[in-house]
Amino acid sequence: MSETVRPTSPESTELLRPGGVWRNWGRSEQTTPAFRATPTSVDEVVAVIRAARDRGLTVKAVGASHSFTGIAATEGVLLDLGRLDGLLAVDVERGRVTLAAGTHLHQLPALLAPYGLALENMGDIDRQTIAGATSTGTHGTGARFRGLAAQLVAVTLVTADGSILRVSETENAELLPAVRLGLGSLGIVVEVTVQCVPAYLLRAVEHPEGFDEVLDAFEQRVSESDHFEFYWWPHTDRVMTRTNTRLPGDAELRPVGPVANWVEETLLQNRVLAVKSGLGRIAPALTPAVNRLATRVYGDRDFTDKSYEVFTSPRTVRFRESEYAIPREAVPQAVRDLRGLVERMGWRLSFPVEVRVAAGDENWMSTAYRRDSGYIAVHQYFREDHLPYFRAVDALLRSYDGRPHWGKIHFQEAEELASRYPRFGDFVSVRDRLDPDRVFANPYLERVLGA
């Protein structure tokens, strides 16, 4: 168990260093902060915020830089939470763990294993930090399972005046639906307590199927499965389905062998995708044929492994992404409309379209707030111009009452977003209370929340 050292009076001048250039993982955002800071304790976070205020600078926390929007960008102080990590406390009886904000999701299996615990659900990437993932609304798939932020039962953050605010079921409980998914606008999250579940296995069945066949049975598939998703390869009539079934932790393991796993996840999912993407730039006319080939060689497996081994996969090819949440029942028609859009526009798209689902929750700024949701995500190789494709998809999914993922590229602004989130005004009021001087503001937050 890691232990956070908290000096009694950290010198703020020693914590700030020249900023340099910051870029996000997808290379869709870049900025040059005046300063960077890498605190190792909550007291140092407090000192940085106070130093920034003294200089009239804003502060933004950054985790793994895996958001595709400018949600972490700043020209003030960039606060890297990478050294504020580890397991801080465990409540074995209730299955709860308290984590430092900079703990990466890929660290959790080793941290939780000694206690026989696991996350209830995960997305397909584990590079993010726990605070970054929850603050932007990261989710997995599963009709009965909520996003990662809904698994938080307590949050500790440092507010704009340098005070420490603890929010839980028993302390400032009225703020919990806001701070669990706070977009980095309410304060610097320094600790979170996660409600875990007993460790479990997943049986994963991956299989290519027909486009219309899957959409016609979509509601049945998601209702009858623990975790269902599919990928549609543009310019084809095929999708790759993934159906994960939860099993007890002591069930029989049948993992993919190391060679087969390397072939599927390293060779096919990443190296071949890199070649496809590069080829698509120089010879786009070949993309449809290459995608059709991919549907014949990619993703046809049946295996059982620990939950985190099944949920997540490596992603080494840089891309940009846009994702919208829409009412779950609207997914089949929306995907068909997206297919028609691609055909009409004549684009040549190397990356598949990803479709997932999640249960509704009570977090005010959750894309699944009080609505069982379907998620449609589109991707573009990072060296290609993503704007025409993403803008058109953005317009299409707005017509389905779409709520954009906060960490993925979209074009909505505060006025429209206020109409999509019933508690939008309440969230902004909490922001006004906790950060009246906009210490944690930046252009992205001004666009989506208002100045």
TrEMBL record:
Domain FAD-binding PCMH-type: 27-199
Pfam families reported for this sequence: ALO, FAD_binding_4
Keyword Transmembrane helix: no
Keywords from the named record: Oxidoreductase
Superkingdom of this protein's organism: Bacteria
Annotated signal sequence range: none
Matching Gene3D superfamilies: 3.30.465.10, 3.30.70.2520, Uridine Diphospho-n-acetylenolpyruvylglucosamine Reductase, domain 2 (3.30.43.10), Vanillyl-alcohol Oxidase, Chain A, domain 4 (1.10.45.10)
NCBIfam families reported for this sequence: bact_FAD_ox
Name of the protein described by the UniProt record: D-arabinono-1,4-lactone oxidase
